[in-house]
Amino acid sequence: MQSSSETDSEKTYLIQKKQPMVNKYKEIRALLSLTFPLILENLAVVLFQSVNLVSLGHLGEEELAGCSLGSILWAISTMFPLGFVHALDAFISQAHGAKNERLVGVYVYQSYFIMIILAIPIAFLWYFSGSVMTALKQDHVVANYARKYLIWQMPGLVPFLFLSVIQECFQNLQIVIAPLVINLIGFGVNIFLNFGFVYGVFHLPKLGFIGSPIATSISEFIMFVLMYIYLKVKKIDKEWKLEKSVFNPLNLGPFLKVGLPIVFTMLIEELIYELTLFLAGAMGTIQMGVHTVLVNIDYLLYSIGLGFSVGVSTRIGYFLGSGDPISARLSTRCSYFIGFIIGAINSSIVISLRKHLGYIFSSSKTIINQVSQLAYYSAVHAFIDANYTTFEGIMRGIGSNVPGFLITFFGFLTISTTLSFVFFFETNLEVKGLWISIIVGISSSAIAVIFLFLRRVNWKKQSDIAVLRATHEWSSSSESESESESETETDEFISKSSTSSSTFSSESSENEDETENQDQDQDQEHLKVSNQSETSSLSSSTFSSESSETEDENEDENENQNQKIQQIISENDFENDNQNNTIINIDIENVNEKSDNLIDLNSDSSDSFV
């Protein structure tokens, strides 16, 4: 038996060694087929927001600066709820991989609840944004435009947040075509209403500056309604239940644990860009316009990498939730290659179109010329940013967001911020110095992510964590996450196993006259239960006379087999006994053992006992 098991293990090793070489091209195709619609969808989302800058930028430099300033505060304030939305990348993809659709609904309803809570302080901030801008030494005229921009965005705030939740849910369920179509529809509606309300075309009333945020609010509401209708028509939420426990603050622990690091990571990244915009604003209106154009071009290219990173996190989370760490690791390696290609393409786009990019956002010749001169810095940043965004998608799929937060804090908030102030006060580099500081910060973060996190990931351990999270969270009616309750449930399971062991022992003694095959089946099943419950003295006494010599000879081998048989018992109990929705402390190093090999080992041990 030992020689055959060694042969099997050698064959398994050879198969696993060859498998990545065989499947990597298929995985690249799978990633591209999933992420290409997501890239287009994210482009539509970014273009949706850029429509406002395009429509208002041609009204004048002050209107462009006011829209830019309002967009800064809009981006910073919505970063908190959107950070929790991105936490769904790990939760929903892993729950979907574990075929736990009910848990998907729990996460969606939790997100709705959090969005409503966070929308209240955001609305207050927008209403008093004029005072905030003035306190930050911004021009009074520009600050007034920014306040108008935000106030008329308020009606679309909650629809936008709910839309983001549904959209993120669809992405992690690998539903990509419908959200893409709806975003394209919303993009077209926003263009139509924006230019209609701002300039009075298309038989719409001319509202001037406020016409742009009004058009955006209407478009966001239309997109949310369309997305919700699709959700209901396709019955995607048929297994979702709005339970009272969703609103229990105690049950928000896992969500906050994963979501808060993402919130602070996104906030830090956004703050460095907004900080440079404020510094550019202090340099003058022209410098503010130049930097705004470059940031928006960079943000447009960032959406390509972001769409790919969402697909990567969805793919990795799905594999981890389904208990397949090998495929998750393979998908990660393929994403490195694709992320590098995306970065090279983005950089090439900026360089080749550098003389024409300024015309998209402004009619000022000065702004257009300076944009073309600084486009090379934007190209370097676009290449690095695409790769770093891919790394962030991998970390979101794994669900390990604390390292990403710490690395981002070091690279962006420490290095980039320091260099930005140094270049601003000590040199005459102006906007060029701001972009150098951003490039140095993101480069440092990318290098740190590779060597401090990605090269050290234990994929087996992460898969075990994902399986346990997706399978056992919210499994009881009380939805409690406390460790004491888990221990109580485990004790109850062990006591039930002991009782069933005693019952089975008495039944097997009464049926000694049955056929030989039935006796062997009972002996085998009795062996499983006796191995799991150490307290079943009756079962051990029943078999002690029959197997004492065998146990003395194969004691070491049986100990290893007992651990594997105990795992089979726990898995069968979860699948066949609906009354035992309990959490079992499974040995995390043996979760992904092949079931066929375990059954063979089990049958061999049973034959030796008989």
TrEMBL record:
GO terms for molecular function: antiporter activity; xenobiotic transmembrane transporter activity. The chain crosses the membrane at residues 30-51, 71-92, 104-129, 149-166, 178-202, 208-231, 271-294, 300-321, 333-354, 403-425, 431-454. One of its GO terms (biological process) is xenobiotic detoxification by transmembrane export across the plasma membrane. It is a multi-pass membrane protein. One of its GO terms (cellular component) is membrane. Residues 480-492, 509-522, 548-559 have a biased composition (Acidic residues). Keywords: Membrane, Transmembrane, Transmembrane helix. Belongs to the multi antimicrobial extrusion (MATE) (TC 2.A.66.1) family. This is Mate family efflux transporter.
